[in-house]
């Protein structure tokens, strides 16, 4: 079985490729990535030596329909798993054009090409941010209404609807996953957890939006990867599956945990003006995924966070390389 994974040089995509090739044989993967700022060949540097001809990399933009058509003609693919996305909320507020290009136009191009080439299944990797913000109670279910707050989440919601429409219009076999906030190794350093880790290691100020009481629901990236593979193999066509590990934490408490682990002073925390449209709380109900497919998260959050902190401390060469401009 061969999979086409897009965005496989990014955080979750590279972890997914590693997870599949380490746990399942003789699966083969073609990784297509445009190598924008958050995608780096450093994250997949060992794949060719580790997995041989079970892995190949192709440099392409998923919004380039001619390039994607040519790639899909090279092999008979069982599935396309679409991780490719611009994903940083602050960047989407400042410059939404690239988010529209990749997340909407790119998804449409990829979806159409997969259908034309008879790809069995299309898996769209989405986010809980398409649901918007929660109050103090309740959790997002697959029936929660879409209420995006940023150009990023709006572009992902649009992509989800394109994918689900293809199922209704053409009978295309598609599934959508919507996951809570990921953490773990190989995450680009501008994201909250690695950013705060590296700031603390350098004894620099840790800027925290607003009052720091915004709540996020965290999941280890390996648990997310396992969920995506389960949905790929067993999920029902045309369905949405929420992925969450029930680890709600206030941003302030998360940062305090990082500082405590590193033995750094809480005085490093610096509260800054909140960003526009900052969602107050996310929480995911993954009952459908757990009940239908038998998935469950395996990583304890506190242990996983400690391991992640140590990974960044021990892999300075990686994060210095991926932070280089250009």
Describe, in plain words, how this protein is organized in 3D.
With 326 residues, this protein is α/β, with parallel strands linked by helices. It has helices at residues 11-23, 47-51, 65-72, 89-94, 97-116, 151-170, 192-201, 221-234, 251-262, 287-293, 301-314, 316-322, and strands at 2-6, 28-33, 55-59, 79-82, 121-127, 174-179, 181-183, 206-209, 215-220, 239-243, 248-250, 269-272. A seven-stranded parallel sheet has the order 3-2-1-4-5-6-10, sandwiched between helices. Strands 7-9-11 form a three-stranded mixed sheet. Helix 1 (11-23) crosses helix 8, helix 5 packs parallel to helix 6 (151-170) and helix 7 runs parallel beside helix 9. The model has no long low-confidence stretch (mean pLDDT 94).
Quick summary of this structure?
This protein is of the alpha/beta class and 326 residues long.
